[in-house]
Structure formats: C-alpha cells, structure tokens
Design brief:
Oligomer: single chain
Radius of gyration: 20 Å
Low-confidence stretches: none
Mean pLDDT: 89
C-alpha cells in the first residue's frame, strides 16, 4: 500500500484469523492491519485492558502501560500527571470509592476540564465515577467526568 524506494519495500502488515489454523485459504478473515503509514486497524472485538492502579497518597498512571485504569480510593489521593504521555492517547480511569467512601481526589496540573475546574466526585461508599481523557499535548490532557455509575 506504499511506494517502494531503493532497497526497501513498503506495504501493509495484515493479520488474519482462520477457522482451520493449519491452512490458509480465501475464507480467512482479516483481524488487524498496520499500513505503511503506521495506521492500525483492528476489527471485531478490539480490547484495551483495564489495569489496576494501587491507591496511595500519590498515584502516577503510566500511559505506556495501559490506556484504561481502575483506581479504588482507599485514602485521599493525588492523581499525579501521568508518565509516558503521547498526544492522541485516549482512555478512561474508573474512580471507585472504597467501602468507607468520602475519599477525595486531587488532580495534577496537566488534567484540563471545560471551564477550568475539575468536577466534584461522588463520595458514597462504593460509588463509581469515570474520567475520560484525550492527550492534546504533553502538558494538556482534556478530561470529562461522568459521575455515579451504578
């Protein structure tokens, strides 16, 4: 899918799924493709795992490790600016109040919200809020919080 030059060959890498793993036939289904431009397309059931962050006074997500996280607030937590940030990364952080509830969350300066102020989280024991983000630059992560999932 690309123009080849001297001593190089450009093209897409394609992964196929076969009902019969021992044969490659025209009945195989494309599962993933990486184009010569670096665009990745995943079909049918793409999954981004949810990693668990350990509650502590300061928690620093590693965006190279995962794009989705769950954090059960077992104390008041500062969610520090994440490490390994790349523009265009997106994901969610599920924020769960432990059995005690009333835990607070302070966010690092790189988390940006419409209006300039982070929303107040749910405080009931066991409540779940979701922080969705997209990295705009290495110092600006646009966020929105959806509160009180059941």
């Amino acid at each position: 899918d690309g123009t080849s030059g001297a001593d190089e060959f450009r093209g897409a890498v394609r992964y196929y799924h076969s009902i019969d793993a021992l044969t490659f036939t025209s009945n195989n289904t494309e599962a993933m493709r990486i184009t010569s431009a670096g665009v990745v397309t995943v079909k049918k059931g793409a999954v981004a795992e949810i990693d668990t962050l350990t509650s502590a006074s300061t928690v620093t997500p590693d965006f190279a490790a995962s794009c989705n996280f769950t954090l059960t607030l077992g104390t008041n937590v500062t969610l520090a600016n994440p490490s390994n940030v790349t523009a265009g990364q997106t994901g969610s952080i599920f924020l769960v109040q432990d059995g005690t509830g009333s835990r607070t969350l302070t966010l690092g300066s790189n988390y940006d919200f419409a209006g300039g102020t982070a929303p107040t989280l749910s405080t009931a024991a066991g409540s779940v809020d979701r922080l969705d983000y997209i990295v705009r630059t290495s110092t600006s992560i646009h966020c929105v919080v959806t509160a009180l999932y059941s």
